[in-house]
Amino acid sequence: MPNEKEYTLYNEKVMDHFMNPRNMGDLPAADGVGEVGAAACGDIMKISLKIEDGRIKDARFKTFGCGSAIASSSMATELIKGRTVEEAMHFSNQEVVDALGGLPPVKIHCSVLAEEALKAALDDYVKKHPEVAEPAPTKG
Ligand code: FES
Q: Per DSSP, which regions of 28-92 are E strands?
């Protein structure tokens, strides 16, 4: 349960994703898995991706961390589903912050963790599928 301080810090949307996180868990046979930690607070976030035909078909997260980190990973997994790998590579924590209706300044780094976990999962996918990193052949 969140403590009283967390209730006063967060808006309703953040609280919703904190209390009812979407896409929590692991993906069996994930195509890419990324796990990162925040040095400052020690929180850990893992994102697993299912990718088909260069598009993110499914995403799951596991977060050992604060309410903001849980809400950020929940929102990030919602936002990236359906995007191409290329589009997801440009994903920014600001998208998470905006979609959550804002985070307290001291909690912005929690959304950065979601961006880093996603990018680590994409890196893992590219490592396992080097062909996707190759530039497309030029015409003519
Ligand atoms: S306080 Fe560590 S990720 Fe939020």
A: 32-37, 44-52, 55-64
In short, whether 110's Cβ falls inside 6 Å of ligand 1 is yes
Pocket test for ligand 1, best of 63, 70, 100, 110 (most atoms within 8 A of CB): 110
pLDDT tens column, 99-140: 999 999 999 999 999 999 999 999 999 999 888 766 656 665
Q: Is the CB of 68 under 6 A from ligand 1?
A: yes
pTM of the model: 0.89
With 0-12 / 13-18 / 19 or more C-beta atoms within 10 angstroms meaning exposed / middle / buried, residue 139 is exposed
**Residue whose token pair is 């600001």:** 94
Active site residue 66: no
Dist CA 48 CA 33 (whole Å): 4
Pair of tokens at residue 81: 């589903």
| Ligand 1, atom 3: closest residue by C-alpha | 110
